[in-house]
Amino acid sequence: xxxxxxxxxxxxxxxxxxxxxxxxxxxxxxxxxxxxxxxxxxxxxxxxxxxxxxxxxxxxxxxxxxxxxxxxxxxxxxxxxxxxxxxxxxxxxxxxxxxxxxxxxxxxxxxxxxxxxxxxxxxxxxxxxxxxxxxxxxxxx
Length: 141
Description:
Blueprint: H1 14-26, E1 34-36, E2 39-40, E3 46-47, H2 52-61, E4 66-70, H3 82-86, E5 89-93, H4 96-103
Parallel strand pairs: 1-4, 4-5
Antiparallel strand pairs: 2-3
Helix pairs in contact: 1-4
């Protein structure tokens, strides 16, 4: 966020930024045909945003057909012109886990982040050498 920004200068990009970080760390690419908007909490809950109509119209102009948006913004969809709504697919999300399953290109999206692999205590973490981080190919200096 730019220094000196007002409080609403970017929180609605929360799920987008979090998805980008997860994509970079896991090396799973993000689908190119999906737009998303939503604030997130530290625990991954997706919160509603303002200006939904403008964001949806911008995504539509860019040729996007699928938009991930907070479940709590469902009430705002009637503000969008009906012809635009009919041409789009809205995915209403409540948690970041769902966002990642729908936005990332993963081999098994329905089981991504579920089960033992989702629990960081379920599998041992390999030791990390001094000066390295636990991400393959990334070295801290």
